[in-house]
Specification:
heterodimer, A: Helix Hairpins, 5 domains, 8-stranded mixed sheet, 6-stranded mixed beta barrel, 23 strands, elongated, B: alpha/beta, 6-stranded mixed sheet, globular
């Protein structure tokens, strides 16, 4: 695996060192780097973290320029040809329902020339071997995807980083110490020039920034002045307009008043006239009424009056005639009187005169009466006349009134018309004025707005300038990060993981090797011993010792070599492939390069050969030492010895006879005793470790997402969106049982030299957190509440950082605010690292308010499709949501890992079982053949088959039990060791091995033991007493 | 009827493709409580006969009747039971369990018997009172053989079978062993059958069976056996 990855890294020209500068890398920097000794090539490059927008989600991606270093490996599609194309890591298409040819929108105007990129292919990058791509200050802090674009797609002024290929580094495996030293040396060199380069760059940047700032300030001043002038002009104009309008309004009001007054006058005149008219009418009507009362009707009155008039006139005429008659008679009388007076006055004449005078007086009276009558009549006449006249006047008056009324009406309507017209005019004028006013108001508003805008702009510009100033002030001396491959997440963790495998690879071979060595030792010894007689004969015939020994050594050698070759094939091809395939689930690494490692071959084979041959040689030598005659005779059985236990009478005496025998036998055959125990121990412990490993790993996810994380759905809010409102939306869904808002952010936690990057979780409602995340210590029930000033960190991280309760750590948020805090509890956790604190604590520590960007919910049980549907529904209806994830998806992902693991566990169990079988079988064989005489003897004594079997196997059983018990302990320890070496940094496996695993381990061992014992039983049954005892002769 | 009866017993071994007839129609009878010596050259079938008598081997054909029982018809298990209860074996090379002390070796046998004798007494009887707690390796050949005999006797068997009990011993020791066997036979009234090359000891037996070519060609009954002390060879 190491070879594979080293070759891969060399082939892809993966950088040996990466130089990152906070202020970018200039061409001069590149040249300076090139001049460093030990540097073969310097490849400047761009990279930028961006937000990409997919159909329903936002992701953080890292855009990198494609360079001749860190060559990417095309998986699908083609490589880049144009500046608006990109290639993306394979995971993207897997996850995002996109295909090659689709475009991807990148929100990064300031660094990329084009925002829309066409995906033309998928790639694997040597820099990103894992699915984890590192962290970013953007978004939720995790980089999801890697996008490669041509260099031309970037519009940055300076390079962001430089890749360095060290001279002759390719020839060395980067797993070697030599590589490390070489790179370290180059890094030191870079460190040396970095100071100078940093200063230069700093000054350059500051200078540029200041220049720009100056320019900006000037522009701002100009713009400010201009804006002010404009505003003043506009204000003046507006003022003029306002004044005009006011004047107009005043005039209008005046006119209106005048017109109104006139109208009132005219109206009152009309009213007066009307009143008069009405009075007249009333009078007329009264007259009329009087006449009507008198005469019935006007016409009657007129007719009567005219008739009266005519009558009266006729009377007057008559009277005038009478008068004239009387006046004639008065004349004649007077004449006669005068005439008579002249004549003697005779008494007759006097009498006549007297008579005449009397008549005259009569006449005169009559005239007077007539005159009176005439006068009377004239009066009457004139009365009648005046009545007529009166009537006529009445009639005329009526007409007049009607006329007058008509006229009045005319006048009225005229007035109304005039009034209306005038009023309309006024209204129009007023509307105009209003409009004018509005216009002015609008103008004012516009002006205000303009002003505000201008102010804002100015403020903004000022702020920007201030920011720029601050920034300039903040521009720190640039930092050069000189990173090597070990700081690359993927490569480093691959390296770590291979080291882990190597560690496992150190343990298992040792166990196997010890057992194998023991097995071959006993087998070979036995073989030689069995052939004792033959050896004796050969020796007696005069063969030299060496030659005889060689025969066995060659036999052992060839057996070992054949076995070894088979072992090598399996060792080199099968097992690494299984393990590597498992690793490829987590790493995007190339096909395994199977390297026939000569060293391993020779070491492995050599050790095996040495072991068996030495054992054989030793056994042969032991035999050959003796005289042929002795050899011809059977080997004298091993001497009986007392065991320590016998010196403790109160135990020994309590043992039954058979038990004593067993105890003594156990102590007698120490080698066998050891081997049995080691074999069984190895078998049991490996099986337990295997199952335990599976337990630990498989319980990790259920533990994490069942016991600790009780929520089933996680919703991420978009940048800057608050979760509180969304929670109420969720609460309406009947599928969602309960929700809690939390803040999640990446944070750095440091203790001493060690730093980890956990997620910080701040629940909004501290007391409800336990419904979603159980914070407790492992194997304990007490659930902790996040009280003020409490900071909880997760167990694995605590271990990695070597932090205990009460220790002080340094927390650093994404904005590089560093605070010190005391860890109050270490809580159970299996996957990833977390830090928990309450909002109050956060505010107190960081002085910032918490924005809740994630909602954790408990939902009803969903099928996979239902989950997808539900997630889509949420995303469609809530624009403030950036993503919905169900914990079950994580569970599914790990199921695959589990399956692979089962494979490894299977291999482990099978090999362990075989080991136990081989060991036990071999031992029982040795046991039987070594003790065949003894066994035959007891058979002769009349031991039943079962008794014989028990006689022999009691020891084996006891040893097996001891082995199993030790194996349980060993399994526990081995499991711990394996887990701690296998464990990825961000996972913690539960080291508690389930009881079931122990039982499995024991059961499997017992199973193999039983099988072996069945073999033993039949082998014992087959012992031919006669043959066994006769062989003596 | 005799206590032990061998009737036309044939035993054939198959060695590869060759059949070897170890016993060829052997017939003999032994009475209860007799001390029988079987003599004959190597390969005459003495041991085969003894093995079959002891239930360690089966016949090819013929009948072996012991105390009225046809042991040739016994199953392996019955044979084991027979060995366990009725037979005591003494071998040339003692076949003691090296890992057990003298007394333990005896106990090993008494452990499985119905009516065993007290191991200590038996060992005392065979003259090993002081060596009881010694391991076989710490005992001389004669002493080891005595342990073996004690082991056989302690089982209180009906039949004591000895295959060359003195073969690996020197003269005096051999004599002592034979004496022991004779005494056992007489005192415990156990039927004792001894295989030996040594014809000199024949006079001490009640019955001498001569084997040759797989057959008991001569059976001599000795009316007046002499005690072992009185003979020399």
């Amino acid at each position: 695996m190491k070879q594979t990855i080293d070759t891969y890294l060399d082939d892809t020209e993966t950088m040996d060192i990466q130089v990152l500068s906070t202020l970018g890398i200039t061409q001069e920097d590149v040249e300076a780097l090139e001049n460093i000794e030990g540097v073969e090539k310097v490849i400047p490059a761009y990279s930028q973290d961006v937000i990409i927008q997919t159909t329903d989600k936002e992701y953080v991606a890292k855009v990198q320029s494609i360079e001749e270093a860190n060559k990417v490996e095309l998986v699908e599609g083609r490589m880049l040809e144009n500046a608006n194309e990109c290639v993306i890591d394979t995971e993207y298409l897997e996850n995002e329902n996109h295909k090659i040819g689709d475009t991807i929108f990148i929100d990064a105007e300031d660094c990329l020339n084009t925002q829309e990129l066409t995906i033309v292919g998928t790639i694997n990058s040597p820099l990103y071997l894992t699915r984890t791509k590192g962290t970013s200050k953007l978004g939720a802090g995790t980089i999801h995807y890697i996008i490669y674009v041509p260099k031309e797609a970037f519009n940055l002024e300076v390079y962001t980083e430089a890749y360095i290929i060290a001279e002759q580094a390719k020839e060395i495996s980067f797993f070697d110490k030599e590589y490390e030293e070489k790179i370290e040396h180059v890094k030191d060199e870079i460190e040396k020039i970095s100071e100078e380069r940093k200063d230069l760059r700093y000054e350059e940047v500051i200078g540029e920034a200041n220049e720009k700032l100056q320019e900006a300030e000037n522009t701002l001043a100009e713009e400010k002045q201009k804006a002010e002038e404009e505003i003043q002009n506009a204000e003046k104009e507006l003022e003029d307009g306002r004044r005009e309008l006011e004047e107009g309004e005043q005039e209008l009001n005046q006119n209106e008043q005048n017109a109104e007054r006139e109208f009132q006058n005219a109206e009152s005149l009309i009213e007066q006239a009307e009143a008069e008219l009405t009075q007249k009418e009333t009078e007329l009507n009264q007259g009329k009424q009087a006449i009507i009362d008198q005469y019935g009707s006007i016409d009657n009155a007129l007719t009567t009056l005219q008739a009266n008039q005519a009558q009266i006139e006729a009377g007057i005429q008559q009277l005038n005639q009478s008068k004239t008659e009387y006046e004639g008679k008065i004349e004649k009388t007077e004449q006669l009187i005068s005439s008579l007076q002249q004549q003697e006055q005779t008494p007759e004449i006097i009498e006549q005169i007297q008579q005449l005078q009397f008549a005259l007086a009569g006449y005169t009276e009559a005239v007077t009466t007539i005159n009176n009558m005439i006068t009377e009549q004239n009066t009457n006449l004139s009365a009648v006349k005046s009545g007529i006249e009166q009537i006529q006047v009445l009639l005329a008056g009526e007409t007049q009134i009607a006329e007058g009324r008509q006229e009045l009406e005319n006048q009225k309507s005229e007035l109304e018309t005039t009034k209306r017209q005038t009023r309309n005019q006024i209204a129009e004028a007023r509307a105009e004025i209003e409009e004018g006013k509005k216009e002015i108001e609008e103008g004012q508003k516009e002006l205000e707005e303009g002003k505000k805008e201008a102010d804002e702009k100015i403020a903004e510009a000022e702020k920007e300038i201030q920011n720029a100033k601050d920034e300039i002030a903040e521009i720190e001396e640039p930092e050069w990060y000189i990173l090597d491959r070990d700081t690359n997440m993927g490569i480093a963790s691959f390296k770590q993981d291979t080291d882990r495998i190597a560690k496992i690879g150190e343990v298992f071979p040792i166990v196997f090797f010890i057992v194998a060595a023991l097995i071959s030792l006993t087998s070979m010894t036995r073989m030689v011993e069995e052939q004792r007689e033959k050896i004796g004969t050969l020796k007696a015939l005069g063969y030299p010792k060496g030659e005889i020994a060689l025969k066995y050594i060659i036999y052992a050698f060839s057996a070992t070599v054949i076995g070894g070759i088979i072992g090598l094939v399996v060792g080199f091809y099968t097992i690494p492939r299984i393990i590597y395939d498992m690793y490829r689930m987590m790493y995007t690494t190339p096909e395994l390069i199977i390297e026939f490692n000569l060293i391993y071959t020779f070491v492995g084979l050599g050790l095996a050969v040495a072991c068996t041959c030495l054992a054989t040689a030793y056994a042969s030598y032991k035999e050959l030492k003796e005289m042929p005659a002795t050899l011809m005779r059977p080997k004298s059985p091993k001497l009986g010895k007392r065991v320590i236990l016998e010196k403790i009478p109160f135990i020994w005496n309590k043992l039954k006879f058979t038990q004593k025998v067993t105890v003594r036998n156990i102590f007698r055959y120490k080698k066998r005793f050891l081997m049995t125990i080691i074999g069984i121990f190895g078998c049991t412990s490996m099986i337990i470790a295997g199952f335990g490993l599976k337990d630990s790993i498989s319980s990790m996810i259920p533990s994490q997402y069942g016991k600790i994380f009780q929520y089933t759905m996680r919703t991420d809010m978009k940048e800057g969106e608050d979760a509180s409102q969304f929670i109420s939306t969720l609460a309406e869904k009947e599928e969602v049982l309960d929700s809690i808002a939390v803040n999640m952010q990446s944070i750095e936690i440091t203790k001493g030299e060690k730093t980890e990057e956990p997620q910080l979780i701040i629940p909004k409602e501290v007391d409800r957190l336990s419904e979603f995340i159980k914070l407790k210590e492992r194997n304990k029930d007490e659930i902790f509440l996040l009280e003020e000033d409490n900071i909880f960190i997760t167990e694995k991280m605590a271990r990695l950082l070597d932090v205990k309760e009460g220790d002080e750590v340094i927390l650093k948020d994404a904005d590089n605010n560093e605070v010190k805090a005391k860890v109050s509890h270490v809580v159970e956790n299996y996957l990833m690292h977390y830090v928990y604190m309450s909002p109050e604590t956060y505010e107190k520590l960081f002085g910032k308010t918490v924005d809740y960007n994630v909602v954790l919910s408990k939902t009803v049980e969903f099928s996979e499709e239902q989950e997808e549907e539900f997630a889509k529904d949420i995303l469609d209806h809530n624009t403030n949501v950036s993503g919905v994830t169900f914990t079950s998806s994580t569970t599914t992902l790990y199921d695959d890992v589990m399956n692979n693991l089962s494979y490894v566990v299977g291999v482990l169990i099978v090999s362990a079982g075989l080991l136990a079988f081989v060991v036990l079988y071999n031992l029982s064989n040795v046991n039987i053949s070594e003790r065949i005489r003894e066994l035959a003897s007891i058979k002769v004594l009349g031991f039943y088959d079962g008794e014989v079997y028990r006689y022999v196997s009691r020891e084996t059983i006891i040893l097996t039990i001891i082995g199993i018990l030790l194996g349980c302990l060993g399994g526990y320890l081995l499991n711990m060791y394996l887990i701690q070496t296998c464990e990825l940094n961000e996972t913690m496996f539960d080291t508690t091995v389930k009881l079931a695993s122990y039982l499995y381990g024991i059961a499997i061992t017992v199973f193999f033991t039983i099988i072996v014992n069945i073999f033993t039983y039949f082998a014992l049954k087959k012992i031919n007493m006669i043959e066994a005892l006769k062989s003596v002769e | 009827m005799a206590y032990i009866e061998f009737k036309n017993v044939v035993k054939e071994y198959t060695m590869g493709e060759v059949k070897i007839r170890a016993l060829n129609e052997t017939n003999f009878q032994i009475e209860k409580g007799e001390l029988v010596v079987i003599v004959g050259p190597s390969g005459a079938g003495k041991t085969s006969a003894l093995n079959m008598l002891g239930g360690m081997d089966t016949v090819t054909s013929g009948e072996i009747i012991i105390d009225g029982k046809h042991i040739e018809k016994y199953s392996p298990k019955q044979l084991t039971k027979y060995r366990r209860e009725d037979i005591g074996f003494v071998f040339q090379f003692y076949n003691l369990v090296q890992n057990l002390t003298a007394i333990e070796n005896v106990e090993l046998a008494t452990e499985i018997c119905k009516n065993p004798l007290d191991p200590k007494k038996v060992l005392e009887q065979v003259g090993l009172k002081d060596r009881m707690k010694n391991f076989p390796a710490q005992l001389s050949g004669g002493e080891q053989q005595r342990v073996a005999i004690a082991r056989a006797i302690a089982k209180n068997p009906k039949l004591l079978l000895c295959d060359e009990p003195t073969g690996a011993l020197d003269y005096n020791t051999g004599k002592q062993i034979l004496k022991l066997l004779q005494d056992t036979c007489r005192k415990n009234n156990i039927t004792v059958i001894i295989i030996t090359h040594n014809g000199a000891i024949a006079p001490t037996a009640d019955k001498v069976i001569h084997f040759k070519n797989g057959m008991a060609y001569d059976i001599v009954k000795n009316e007046n056996p002499i005690p072992i002390e009185n003979i020399e060879w």
